[in-house]
């Protein structure tokens, strides 16, 4: 169920990026204006992260996640009625305030249902929904847009979320934690005094925008720089994300495999995160590859590596925080990711309009390494897990 709603979530998110060539023409949007629409969604994510984390900790995942899904699905459907860039940006902000609950709820459920040695693989499977959704979105959205009109492409994902909700309420029940805790609650102030909180927040600050760039800008890049038609984007745009699908599951499986062989969780995270962050450097070659197939492959390697890395980044939250604080800790990392996700599209739009995509690909190549290094340098409590 968590995998399924994550797939739906990312089809929702991808609809605007897949339709960007059409929407930019219809709404007369520059790259900078499109970047502001992307940032509006990220601003909504930032605004909603901690409230959603609190909701999951306070009311439980069963009710909390169902409410989040209905909230963002309503926003997704409303996008079909927008007539301007401002209206689209406002509805994207609304959608972001709900969609951030997908991870707060999912992380909380996984913490409760799985033993520590199983969690990273469970997170990898759950998080791979982001790549499955990104893989499905281009052909699905373009088919709906070309067959029934682009507004239908917003309505169908909204209906999928609404249809999912009663099944979740019927099938899932909140269960007691498998690990006892010494305290009942942890305040926000207490969380913010912990070095681990700042470590995971800074890690997500740098890692989060990388995948967002591939989700929200690659269709526009393929259309404007590689000169692919909308139909060709629908036919081929999913290929890099197919490779990404394998990355999240592999990241979880490798972490579990290393733990079973006696490595400390500190060593497991260092090995998996530094190695995958290094592979993200594949994006440096994308703007300089004249062959489109080679560029697709380089993007696919970078997406796969970043998703591998993300599974272990989210796993770090379950390593470092107790059950009653996992939802809020995930929310805090989401605030950090939302802040960078708000700023990075604005910078991307400016660079694309005034320079090119090349410096953006350089940035997303190095940011995973920076985020990983900050997690281990600042998150001093990790060393006690050696």
TrEMBL record:
<keyword id="KW-0812">Transmembrane</keyword>
<feature type="transmembrane region" description="Helical">
    <location>
        <begin position="152"/>
        <end position="172"/>
    </location>
</feature>
<dbReference type="InterPro" id="IPR050382">
    <property type="entry name" value="MFS_Na/Anion_cotransporter"/>
</dbReference>
<feature type="transmembrane region" description="Helical">
    <location>
        <begin position="121"/>
        <end position="146"/>
    </location>
</feature>
<feature type="transmembrane region" description="Helical">
    <location>
        <begin position="295"/>
        <end position="317"/>
    </location>
</feature>
<dbReference type="InterPro" id="IPR011701">
    <property type="entry name" value="MFS"/>
</dbReference>
<feature type="transmembrane region" description="Helical">
    <location>
        <begin position="329"/>
        <end position="351"/>
    </location>
</feature>
<feature type="transmembrane region" description="Helical">
    <location>
        <begin position="271"/>
        <end position="289"/>
    </location>
</feature>
<feature type="transmembrane region" description="Helical">
    <location>
        <begin position="238"/>
        <end position="259"/>
    </location>
</feature>
<feature type="transmembrane region" description="Helical">
    <location>
        <begin position="357"/>
        <end position="378"/>
    </location>
</feature>
<dbReference type="Pfam" id="PF07690">
    <property type="entry name" value="MFS_1"/>
</dbReference>
<dbReference type="GO" id="GO:0015134">
    <property type="term" value="F:hexuronate transmembrane transporter activity"/>
</dbReference>
<dbReference type="InterPro" id="IPR036259">
    <property type="entry name" value="MFS_trans_sf"/>
</dbReference>
<keyword id="KW-0472">Membrane</keyword>
<keyword id="KW-1133">Transmembrane helix</keyword>
<protein>
    <submittedName>
        <fullName>Hexuronate transporter</fullName>
    </submittedName>
</protein>
<dbReference type="InterPro" id="IPR020846">
    <property type="entry name" value="MFS_dom"/>
</dbReference>
<dbReference type="GO" id="GO:0016020">
    <property type="term" value="C:membrane"/>
</dbReference>
<feature type="domain" description="Major facilitator superfamily (MFS) profile">
    <location>
        <begin position="1"/>
        <end position="383"/>
    </location>
</feature>
<feature type="transmembrane region" description="Helical">
    <location>
        <begin position="197"/>
        <end position="218"/>
    </location>
</feature>
